[in-house]
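Predict structure. Input: Protein kinase domain-containing protein, 135 residues.
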Amino acid sequence: MDVLPGEPVYKSLWRHQRGFPEAFAKQCAAQVVVALLDLHGRGFMHRDVKTGNVLLDPATGRCHLIDFGFAKSLVRDDRTLDGRAMSFVGTHYAMAPEVYHCSHQQRDNYYTVAVDWWYEQHCNDHHPAEELADE
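Output follows.
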């Protein structure tokens, strides 16, 4: 296994208090999407995508998806793609409320565009969970 140079995206965000330039943020997000498409194409889902699990190489500007400890196979015993996870894993503060609060019966339908917006806010170093905790 290769050792990748760089640091987690969240550490870079701390130094860029106004966030990353939009063009760079789009480039990094696109690289993560390509990594996820490749992972899904191989029959796995990551289940813990967050700024701490995206490594930024400052020399090249490339972003790499890391930490596959919660990854799960999408392939059932009959070798067909299932696309569902019946277990609940991930980093709670990085989860969208739709995911965190869904019941076992709701898990088939929990994913919405709101989950994408939740992740987008995290990429911009905005943590909605902190606001919810204050209420």
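The longest strand covers residues 54-57.
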